[in-house]
């Protein structure tokens, strides 16, 4: 297993402090603040330690920015253990303050009515360039101080379907974005757990989603005078899925206003709609 996949698994494997309290380590994924996907994945994993059922939904709010130099304590409250659903509330805490809170629901797989919207028609991932290769081709446009962080390889593998813009000179585009995503390596043995697959999906569900709403404005997260941050995040797991096999993640923004943007995401695997996401993000213009 490659170092990147092993590090991702380690980040999403929490230390049990006592009953219903877990400790997660932080890492620099995007800068000095904790990456929202890390918190989503860790919060989901913390709750999963208290039940043997798979998650079917998570609704979370980002309350404060997290410090990458400090571990995060996750406190799980057992709200309900019913025959059909298990409900948990999770608080992520740093320096004695709650930085994130989520309600997470778990349920067993059962038979029922079946319907899904049609999967969009995109090229197969084998025909696409990887994100890392695309980034390397853009290095001449990147300011020297930012090159090390820009070229750094992600802990997951991405193959963009939409145009990868020059983040320093973006142009207005449709509020749509899509990519294929998976871990660099297969999960085998004791690591091949539903809870870990779902935590990894939660981790990578936060990549790009919020910034889809910046596209029609000709902006990127690196544009001057723009403040971006995730406000909330919801995940719905519709069917079983594997984080180590290609997932088509199709995203769209529907409205921007009041310094916020609304974004929706749909994950497809083997022709099935397996997961949906919703996120509202802050996109505030600041004076020069």
UniProtKB/TrEMBL annotation:
Enzyme class: hydrolase
CDD domains attached to this UniProt entry: Thioesterase_II_repeat1, Thioesterase_II_repeat2
InterPro entries the record matches: Acyl-CoA_hotdog, Acyl_CoA_thio, HotDog_dom_sf, TesB_ACOT8-like_N, TesB_C
Reactions it catalyzes: a fatty acyl-CoA + H2O = a fatty acid + CoA + H(+)
GO cellular component, one term: cytosol
Domain of life the protein comes from: Bacteria
Protein name as catalogued: Acyl-CoA thioesterase 2
Species of origin: Acinetobacter boissieri
Taxon lineage: Bacteria, Pseudomonadati, Pseudomonadota, Gammaproteobacteria, Moraxellales
């Amino acid at each position: 297993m490659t170092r990147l996949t092993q590090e991702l698994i380690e980040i999403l494997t929490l230390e049990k402090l006592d009953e219903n309290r877990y400790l997660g380590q932080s890492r620099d994924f995007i800068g000095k603040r904790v990456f929202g996907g890390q918190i989503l994945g860790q919060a989901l994993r913390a709750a999963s330690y208290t039940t043997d059922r798979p998650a079917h939904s998570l609704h979370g709010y980002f309350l404060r920015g997290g410090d990458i130099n400090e571990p995060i304590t996750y406190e799980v409250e057992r709200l309900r253990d019913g025959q059909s659903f298990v409900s948990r509330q999770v608080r992520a805490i740093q320096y004695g303050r709650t930085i994130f809170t989520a309600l997470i629901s778990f349920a067993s797989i059962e038979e029922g009515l079946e319907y899904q919207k049609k999967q969009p028609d995109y090229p197969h991932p084998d025909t696409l360039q990887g994100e890392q290769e695309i980034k390397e081709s853009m290095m001449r446009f990147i300011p020297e101080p930012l090159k090390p962080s820009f070229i750094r390889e992600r802990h997951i593998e991405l193959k963009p379907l939409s145009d990868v813009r020059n983040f320093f000179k973006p142009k207005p585009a449709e509020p749509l974005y899509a990519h294929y995503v998976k871990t660099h390596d297969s999960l085998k043995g004791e690591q091949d757990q539903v809870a870990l697959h779902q935590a990894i999906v939660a981790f990578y569900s936060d990549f790009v989603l919020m910034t889809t709403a910046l596209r029609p404005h000709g902006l990127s997260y690196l544009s001057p005078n723009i403040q971006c941050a995730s406000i909330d995040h919801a995940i719905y797991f519709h069917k079983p899925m594997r984080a180590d096999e290609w997932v088509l993640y199709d995203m769209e923004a529907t409205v921007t206003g009041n310094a916020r943007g609304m974004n929706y995401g749909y994950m497809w695997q083997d022709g099935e709609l397996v997961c949906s996401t919703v996120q509202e993000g802050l996109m505030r213009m600041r004076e020069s």
